Amino acid sequence: MNPEQRLDTIVREVGEKYGFESIGAEFEGFRNMVVKWRRTNRWIRFKVSDYLADAPDEIFQSLARVLFQQISRERDKYPEDLLAWLTDPSFCLRNRETYLTRSPELTGDSKGCYKDLQDSYARLKEQGLVKDDPDILICWNQTARPETPSYYSVLMKTVALTDLLDDPSVPDYVLDWLVYHDLCIVQSGYKPYAVKRTVPIKVARRYPKMTEAQEFLDWFLKDVIDSCECEEDEED
Fold first, then answer.
1. Do residues 44 and 22 make contact, with C-beta atoms less than 8 angstroms apart?
2. Which residues, in sequence order, are CB contacts of 186 under 8 Å at separation 6+?
3. What is the pLDDT of residue 226?
4. What one-character DSSP code corresponds to residue 143?
5. Is the N or C terminus of the chain more exposed, i.e. has fewer CB atoms within 10 Å?
6. Which phi and psi (to 5°) does residue 110 adopt?
7. pLDDT given at position 163
């Protein structure tokens, strides 16, 4: 059987134990590692991220069990084998090229026109604020809105800053703060049940210029938003 047939067979076997009568599962090329489903009383169909296409049967079984537990509101501890498989460095390295292809707004390169985000990473490591991880990717986001100056993916070990900040007037400590903030989340590891990830204030305050950086961002990005609004008014 091919991977999708294996997935479908295993999901059906597990689903029947939970009382479902019509069950199906297929892979989908989502940008992120997600699983979506549609269901009625005894009917259910899953679309599973194809980042899992090379997983062994045991991982499909663990995934199926945790999904049906969630659907039946029997949420249990996340399967350790599934967690280990998703967070193994090889998972990121196998799938990140595909992830970047599906994320055309991410440049995949730390170098901008004026700033190199690897310099931020190097400064943070020198200060002992973050761990060295050769698999981390720090790059620019070409379509980010001013309200969201940074973006991260824990499983793909990626941090991206809006290229609005690739500006000679932006102090290095501002870029360092954003890289530090998102790296703290990425390096704290994958937490599958977390809805929204935040950096504990005690950890955030380890960055010495947190307040100054945030104040600059509030001013700089508000100025960008105001400029955009003016341009829209002129077009009208």
1. yes
2. 136, 152, 153, 154, 157, 158, 159
3. 46
4. S
5. C
6. -75, -20
7. 94
Q: How far apart are the first and last CA of the chain?
A: 58
Distance (Å, whole) CA 197 – CA 7: 30
| Average pLDDT of adjacent 10-residue blocks, the chain of 236 residues | 96 95 97 95 96 97 94 83 96 97 97 98 97 96 85 96 95 97 94 77 93 93 54 42
List the structure tokens of 99: 């992830």
Tokens representing 221 are 């990005």
Tokens at residue 216, please? 């600059």
Strand residues in the chain grouped as ranges (E): 22-28, 35-39, 43-49, 137-141, 150-153, 158-162
Taking the whole predicted model, whether its pTM rises above 0.85 is answered as yes
Give the span between the Cα atoms of 112 and 116, in whole angstroms.
Answer: 6
Q: What is the DSSP string of 155-206?
A: TTTEEEEEGGG-STTS-HHHHHHHHHHHHHHHHT---TT-SS----HHHHTT
Residue 224: the pLDDT is 57
pLDDT, position 192 = 80
